[in-house]
Amino acid sequence: MGAYLLRRLLLIVPTLFGIMLINFVLTQFVPGGPIEQVIAQIEGQGDVFEGFSGNGGSGAELETVNEDYIGARGLPPEFIEQLEKEFGFDKPPVERFLTMLGNYLRFDFGESYFRSISVVDLVLEKMPVSISLGLWSTLIAYIVSIPLGIRKAVKDGSSFDTWTSGFIIVAYAIPGFLFAILLLVLFAGGSYWQIFPLRGLTSDNWHELSLLGKIGDYFWHITLPVVASTISSFATLTLLTKNSFLDEIKKQYVITAKAKGLSESRVLYGHVFRNAMLIVIAGFPAAFLSVFFGASIIIETIFSLDGLGRLGFEAAVARDYPVVFGTLYVFGLIGLLIGIISDLTYVLVDPRIDFESRKV
């Protein structure tokens, strides 16, 4: 197992290199880079930084530029060259890419172009929101889906299986953003009941509350976002668990165990569970990452949660490349590490699995 883990850890390096290289090359062909964004605002062609208002403010360089050049027309070449030097675009792309990789190996992601804060501090500031959303959604999905899937497998073909399957299919068919809006309309004061807050993870007076009050306020705010982000993964995981258990229940070793007089629960949880859960465990990284990196963008935007998904979206729109590549590097690294953790979980559930015989 040690040799396999070493190979997987070493494989992270070329994988991250490929991810960063492809995205860096793509950004070279995307129109409207950070310099064009600054020039557009100076010339009054659009407030491209409006999405950042109230989130730390713009950087000192941008404030100076606005004071000196606001409303200007026909910017001099010297000023453009100064901007390119400040943003590092006076160097060839290959040199910029290699410098970026060297800095990233030391976890030095630089500073945001348009905010007076380093990328590391910015990511650490936003990460608790996304982690909360991803962990709670994944945890609830597994806690509910696995027992429900096992029950559906045992009661396959019954009225319970039919009705729950209908509910699951309907839940899966509803887009996450549409379900989030529906929750806001119904329970956040849209048109009916105002049971839950409309935005944020905490109230304005959160620091004045007691410990129990803070915990209650946190769960009060996170309920709707977690429900909205869990609905699709809940449906997928339930059907995956059911089908996995059905495949195992029909195998010969289950029939043999029952013939020996073992109880149904002993057969189900003592023999079937270990084999059937392998495919469910294999889906854990995808389930967590889909909530943490994918659904978080929509959910955080709808519920006004200041997390990594929203940060990455705003940075991409404003061409804030240090934030874009910094979050991409962190996301890619976390995804690769979670894949390795998933393999370790395989061995924990079923020690018969041997990864040493694998080449990669």
TrEMBL record:
Residue ranges occupied by any ABC transmembrane type-1 domain in the UniProt entry: 127-346
Annotated TM spans: 9-30, 129-150, 162-188, 218-241, 276-303, 323-349
UniProt keyword Membrane, yes or no: yes
Gene3D superfamilies xrefs: MetI-like
GO-annotated cellular components: plasma membrane
UniProt-annotated location(s): Cell inner membrane; Cell membrane
Membrane topology, as annotated: Multi-pass membrane protein
A single BP term in Gene Ontology: microcin transport
This protein's record includes keyword Transport: yes
PANTHER family: INNER MEMBRANE ABC TRANSPORTER, INNER MEMBRANE ABC TRANSPORTER PERMEASE PROTEIN YEJB
Family statement drawn from the similarity comment of this UniProt entry: Belongs to the binding-protein-dependent transport system permease family.
Official protein name in the record: Microcin C transport system permease protein
Organism of derivation: Tropicimonas isoalkanivorans
